[in-house]
Amino acid sequence: MSELPAKKTTSHVDIEVRPRLLYVKLVGPQIGQRESPIISQEVDPYIKAAGKDLKHFIVDMKSVTFMSSMGVGVCIAMRNKAVAAGAKAVLFGTTPELVKLLSMMKIDQMYKLAKDQAELDMILRS
After folding, report:
1. HEC string of 52-82?
2. Distance between CA 79 and CA 107 in Å, rounded?
3. CB 65 within 8 A of CB 95
4. What's the rounded mean pLDDT across residues 78-84?
5. For helices 35-50 and 69-84, what crossing angle results, to 10°?
6. pTM exceeds cut of 0.90
7. 105 within 8 A of 70, measured Cβ to Cβ
8. Are 45 and 54 in contact (CB under 8 A)?
9. What per-residue confidence (pLDDT) applies to 2?
């Protein structure tokens, strides 16, 4: 990943590259039609650059309170790309309301869910 910075901050996403891990913090409060393609454009090169070295793909959703169908779609697309590279996909810090939405759409079955730092640390050790 030498051509990409190890940390990148934009108005919609904070990206941090760690050994065998890509940490993507979505900057809320909402991920909708306008934000989704921008997030995808920012994150996709990092997933591609990590390739098969990527073990964990973490999407931090602590600051997100609303997500449109396009926001859900970008989460699915990022997850699919990360899993294709061999990574475990994790949603971290998702609000109870968003967990309900994601559960209704079966997205919770595509990602591991970590509601707090202790759960995230346990997933990362596995």
Report:
1. HHCCEEEEECCCCCEECHHHHHHHHHHHHHH
2. 10
3. yes
4. 96
5. 0
6. yes
7. no
8. no
9. 52
Note every long-range contact of 100-103, with CB atoms under 8 Å and residues 24 or more positions apart, other chains counting.
Answer: 101/67, 101/72, 102/72
Q: Tens digit of pLDDT for each residue in 103-113?
A: 998 888 899 99
Q: Which two tokens stand for residue 71?
A: 């926001």
Provide the β-strand partners of residue 57. Answer: 22, 89
| Residue 8, strand partner residues | 15
Mean pLDDT value across the chain: 93
Extended beta strands in 1-126, E state:
7-9, 13-18, 21-26, 30-31, 56-60, 66-67, 88-92, 112-114
Mode of pairing for the β-strands spanning 66-67 and 112-114? unpaired
Length of the chain: 126
Q: Are strands 88-92 and 7-9 parallel, antiparallel or unpaired?
A: unpaired
Q: Is the dihedral of CA 71, 24, 78, 55 positive or negative?
A: negative
